[in-house]
Amino acid sequence: MREFDALWIEADKDSGAPLPAKWNKITVDQLSPGDVTVRVTHTTINYKDGLALAGNPAVTRKFPMVPGIDVVGEVLISESDRFKPGDQVILNGYGLGEVHTGAYAQIARLKSEWLLHRPPEISAPRAAAIGTAGYTAMLCVMALERHGITPEHGQIAVTGSSGGVGSVAISLLSKLGYETVAFTGRMEEADFLKSLGATEVLNRSELGGEGKPLGQERWAGGVDVAGSHTLVNLISQTKYGGAVAACGLAQGMDIPGNVMPFILRSVALLGVDSVLVPMPLREQAYRRLVQDLDLAKLDSLSETVKLADVPERAAKILKGQVRGRTIVEVD
Ligand code: NDP
């Protein structure tokens, strides 16, 4: 049976905790079961992938594991009626790289009910550039829209804006006509963020500490990747009837706040998950990405690396040293 390269995480025999990922030669029978076998042509590196490669037990929960939460590739073998060899497919989340072997390998064995046909308008490298982070940004924007927030309501604050979710969220919101305020710890990226469409760029330290229970009303809405004080301050500064879409925990997983913005201003906190999103909403998100994501901006916020570069780049993403999105060429 043909061997191929994979990043491989095993558990420590004594503690059961994940060991650091290492390169391994594996065969397809070492992959989790699935009815579609895919040649992985591209993948990406999300914050969560960084956590997995750093040995975070909250991400890697089954062993041995091939990490990597996003697959872009071509079907090699299919036992499903929905897919045939040669089909171009995408998979984001669904426990990939957590409980089902994932993307950092040349071949992946996947479940057909998790797979999307890649829209022809989005090339394979661009689908990797979008990845979980970009598709989550779209889900956040759709959550704000469902709440009835339109560009006329005012500015949208976006945190972690130099990162993956944040940079794609700014690009999407600006194309949709929203004014966006980009919060970042990297003020040197202000010109880059303005090139994506940010109206204003502010230092994230403004939101990072303990704030007032009810701040001055500033935003119609927010997209937050940080959690903790950042999320609480964003909520407390949201205008009457506004909403904050919360998807991340880059600052922390706590919510050290109070109920005043909810009960005095009808502010809504909209939780956004990408992993277990039902297929119809995923398909809708990708239709919206085709329609509303400026591909020139996507290219400008993406950088391409090789599969061999994944461990080094994953360490950088945890230190906040990666700008925008990463395309990983697997072939
Ligand atoms: P990135 O690492 O690409 O971006 C995160 C950004 O957050 C950094 O670039 C930085 O931006 C900012 N940041 C880092 N530390 C802090 C801090 N202490 N306080 C405030 N901001 C900080 O990650 P992703 O965009 O891939 O993911 C962002 C978050 O969203 C992660 O927590 C991730 O786990 C979560 N996520 C959740 C998903 C879901 O399904 N709910 C799906 C995808 C992501 P800057 O330098 O501009 O300040």
UniProtKB/TrEMBL annotation:
Top-level taxonomic group: Bacteria
Residue ranges constituting the Enoyl reductase (ER) domain according to the UniProt record: 16-328
Pfam families: ADH_N (PF08240), ADH_zinc_N (PF00107)
TM region(s), chain numbering: none
Name of protein: Zinc-binding dehydrogenase
Originating species: Pseudovibrio japonicus
